DNA sequence: AAAATACTTAAGGGATTGCTTGACAATTAC
DNA sequence: GTAATTGTCAAGCAATCCCTTAAGTATTTT
């Protein structure tokens, strides 16, 4: 499965500026200017980051008048979260089985 | 907090080859050659991906004789998972509060 | 000791990323 | 209607990324 949307989601989250944007949006919607205000870069640069976030599906936005308001898209976050969670659980299940094996082996040769 | 380790973890997971490696390792440790076998690229290329994964903390490895064996490092996976989870929950809690507000508002003007 | 195996390092090249500045809408306020 | 606000587009540039091939090193195997 050539999962393009996970590519984009994880790559988007790999940049500290974009994570800061997601962090800010997690506590409520915000306009482009509001998002840009605390960031140490030009407005066009922030726009580019927002574009990446939108293409990844992590963020959505609507323009009303001259103001664009952005919000989290929880489904995409959930997808990324799930991928990591599934792999970690699979690995940990393996470890559990190994522990169980070692324990039973120890019982047999006390 | 300038979270460098999350940068590396998410960026690492943003590449499909590296996700394929993590996927493979989730179901058990493997040598470099075993990891490289199904991948459509040269061995040195795979080594570079492994280097990125190790620097991100997602994967660890040990060399015994001439064979390097790689394994998942669940703590780093957990960290990434947690970051996404926390933001999603924060956002969803907001949505819940909004629903509650709309419900109570509807009760007051029936 | 020679050959095969398993990995590693180095050099380089083409594509992508993350910014910048400058110019240009489109909308709202005065 | 003029000016301020808010966002967008375009060109360009330095750094990084992902891969290649070629040439090693270290460890078995025969």
Which secondary structure elements does this structure contain, and how are they paired or packed?
2 copies of one chain form a homodimer.
Chain A: H1 4-13, H2 16-26, E1 30-31, H3 32-36, H4 43-55, E2 59-64, E3 67-72, H5 74-108
Helix pairs in contact in A: 1-4
Chain A binds a DNA duplex (30 and 30 nucleotides) through residues 15, 17, 31-33, 41-45, 47-49, 52, 63, 65-68.
Level-1 CATH class name of chain A: Mainly Alpha
CATH topology of chain A: Arc Repressor Mutant, subunit A
| Parts with pLDDT < 50 across at least 5 consecutive residues of chain A | none
Would you report the number of β strands of chain A? 3
- Main sheet makeup of chain A: 3 strands, antiparallel
Describe the structure.
- Two copies of one chain form a homodimer.
- Chain A has 110 residues and is an alpha+beta fold.
- Chain A has a single domain, classed as Winged helix-like DNA-binding domain superfamily/Winged helix DNA-binding domain (Arc Repressor Mutant, subunit A), CATH 1.10.10.10.
- Helices cover 67% and strands 13% of the residues of chain A.
- Chain A contains five helices and three strands, in the order ααβααββα.
- Chain A has helices spanning 4-13, 16-26, 32-36, 43-55, 74-108, and strands spanning 30-31, 59-64, 67-72.
- In chain A, strands 1-3-2 form a three-stranded antiparallel beta sheet.
- In chain A, helix 1 (4-13) runs antiparallel to helix 4 (43-55).
- The longest helix of chain A is centred in the C-terminal third of the chain and has 35 residues, at 74-108.
- The radius of gyration of chain A is 21 Å and the shape is elongated.
- Chain A binds a DNA duplex (30 and 30 nucleotides) through residues 15, 17, 31-33, 41-45, 47-49, 52, 63, 65-68.
């Amino acid at each position: 499965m050539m999962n393009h949307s996970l590519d984009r989601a994880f790559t988007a989250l790999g940049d500290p500026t974009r994570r800061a944007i997601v962090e800010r949006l997690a506590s409520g919607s915000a306009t482009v200017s509001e998002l840009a205000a605390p960031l140490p870069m030009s407005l066009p640069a922030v726009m580019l980051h927002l574009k990446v976030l939108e293409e990844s599906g992590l963020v959505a936005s609507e323009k009303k008048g001259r103001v664009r308001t952005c919000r989290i898209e929880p489904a995409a976050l959930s997808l990324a979260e799930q991928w990591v969670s599934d792999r970690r659980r699979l690995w940990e299940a393996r470890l559990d089985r190994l522990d169980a094996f070692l324990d039973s082996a120890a019982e047999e040769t006390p």
